[in-house]
Design goal:
The chain has 462 residues and is of the alpha+beta class. It has two domains: 162 residues, 3-Layer(aba) Sandwich (Creatine Amidinohydrolase, Chain A, domain 1), CATH 3.40.350.10; 292 residues, Creatinase/methionine aminopeptidase superfamily (Creatine Amidinohydrolase, Alpha-Beta Complex), CATH 3.90.230.10. The protein has 17 helices and 15 strands. The strands form five sheets. It has a five-stranded mixed β-sheet with strand order 6-5-4-1-7. A three-stranded antiparallel β-sheet has the order 8-9-10, covered by helices on one side. The longest helix is centred in the middle third of the chain and has 24 residues. The radius of gyration is 24 Å and the shape is globular. The protein starts with a helix and ends with a helix. Bound molecules: glycine and manganese (II) ion. Manganese (II) ion binds next to loops. The site of manganese (II) ion has 5 residues, from loops.
């Protein structure tokens, strides 16, 4: 946990964003897996972590915006709990760890919230994403279940986004450390990527690294020789020589900050000429995007710059044709690069996504596109210093999508379908880094992970 002053300061800054009334932050509960007492690994809610820091289940935080008082709700352990889980700090002590003076038992929470509502005061809360929390809020506030999703406080959502988007030094250090763990995960995977190895042997090994060096993975490992499927969680294939392995994986720190890195490597350690050609286009797009990152630039413009880089490369190879700007303007490149350039990263790997992608990534200056491809861009607005974003361009040959577009004769002015046919067995390539927006530009977080063809081939040869 960070020093208590950090949490106090965050809550005080939130007070400037939301008023009047109360803010209710429910912490997460344990969630059953296959029978009641067998639970998933506990993960605290990221907003609770940010403002109330405590990493145990069955807690809640309330900020009274009118009196300026914060209250921690939770029960002290009793002897039955101590027998199973050992002695625990008292709620009073836990409150002290996060700069909260008042601690009350859980059974006072309903009275506090209902009392406020009865007095005509607003209870602000964020959109819940777990069934257990939706039921808890419904029961505590007395709102019908079906209405809970419509009740979250817009003011609170915007306030939390404003604060959490900008990472301080301690948060950046956490993320930097997690990229260092990802370095070990990725370089280990690269060395294991030999013909005959099972995807799951590598996936299991790198998840083990995340568990032994951090708090586990920051999202389920994506590791596949079928990289044309963007989020492929199937790990049952055997590595074969002509394929590439896409490894999209990161670690989560003890304080729950994420890294999210993707590398694509040739099975066996040497890129073929055809793989190298496509790889270098994705690499150039990744580097051009990182170079373009700085405060005041629309992330959508960097996404489009990346799209042009990809289109230029594919045109040079004869896979695409025509004018690059026109092709991108028409969205022809989206057959090969259908997703967005990246997303904010922090306590959540897709940071703050639970509060609504459009509130996080768009504003009055820029609206989300409804077009295929650009519409998948989670974040389009201007970058600010202290944002941390992923930069993850890719080129994919998705046979099913190619067949549909070809049949529909889509963008035939810009796509050479005859050439594309010969790439249908290619797979996909993605290269992803975690990038801090600095005062004048950007900085890629963490220990550099092999990224050029030469660097990858060199480490795979070790
Ligand atoms: N690394 C997975 C994602 O960004 O969606
Ligand atoms: Mn990502």
């Amino acid at each position: 946990m960070f020093p208590s002053s950090i949490y106090k300061d965050r809550r005080n800054r939130l007070r400037n964003e939301v008023h009047p009334g109360l803010i209710f932050f429910p912490g997460n509960q344990e969630v059953s897996f296959n029978y009641p007492a067998n639970t998933y690994a506990f993960r605290q809610d990221s907003n609770f972590l940010y403002f109330f820091g405590l990493d145990q289940p069955d807690l809640a935080g309330v900020m009274d915006l009118d009196s300026g008082k914060d209250i921690l709700f939770g029960n002290d352990v009793e002897i039955d709990d101590i027998i199973w889980m050992g002695q625990q700090p008292s709620m009073k002590e836990r409150g002290n760890q996060i700069g909260v003076e008042e601690a009350l038992p859980m059974n006072k929470l309903e009275e506090t919230l209902r009392g406020a509502i009865a007095a005509g005061r607003t209870v602000h809360f964020l959109p819940p994403y777990r069934g257990e929390t939706i039921i808890q809020i419904s029961e505590l506030l007395g709102y019908p279940l079906a209405e809970i999703r419509n009740q979250p406080s817009d003011q609170l959502i915007r306030g939390v986004v404003k604060l959490r988007m900008k990472k301080d030094q301690l948060e950046i250090q956490e993320m930097e450390n997690m990229v260092d763990v990802a370095w070990l995960m990725h370089t280990t995977a690269m060395k294991m990527a030999r013909p005959g190895t099972l995807e799951k042997e590598i996936a299991g090994t790198i998840e083990g690294i995340a568990l032994s060096q951090a708090c586990g993975v920051s999202f389920p490992v994506i590791l596949t020789i079928n990289g044309q499927t963007l989020h492929n969680h199937y790990h049952g294939n055997i590595l074969v020589p002509e394929r590439m392995l896409v490894i999209d994986a990161g670690a989560e720190s003890e304080y729950h900050y994420a890294s999210d890195i993707t590398r694509t490597v040739p099975v066996g350690g040497e890129f073929s000429q055809r793989q190298k050609e496509i790889y270098d286009i994705v690499l150039a797009a990744n580097m051009a995007a990182i170079k373009a990152v700085k405060p005041g630039v629309f992330f959508r413009d960097i996404h489009l710059l990346t799209a042009r880089e990809i289109t230029r490369g594919l045109t040079a190879l004869g896979i695409m044709k025509g004018d690059v700007d026109e092709a991108v303007g028409n969205g022809a490149h989206t057959m090969f690069f259908p997703h967005g350039l990246g997303h904010p990263i922090g306590l959540d790997v897709h940071d703050l996504e639970g509060l609504g992608e459009n509130v996080v990534g768009y504003d009055q200056e820029i609206q989300r596109s409804k077009e295929f491809g650009l519409g998948f861009l989670r974040f389009g607005r201007k970058l600010q210093e202290h944002f941390v974003m992923t930069i993850e361009p890719g080129i994919y040959f998705i046979p099913e999508l190619i067949d549909i577009w070809k049949t529909e004769r889509k963008h035939t002015d810009f796509i050479n379908y005859d050439v594309v046919e010969s790439y249908k067995d290619f797979g996909g390539i993605r290269i992803e880094d975690d990038v801090l927006v600095t005062a004048k530009g950007s900085r890629v977080l963490g220990k550099p992970i092999p990224k050029t063809v030469d660097e990858i081939e060199a480490i795979m040869a070790e």
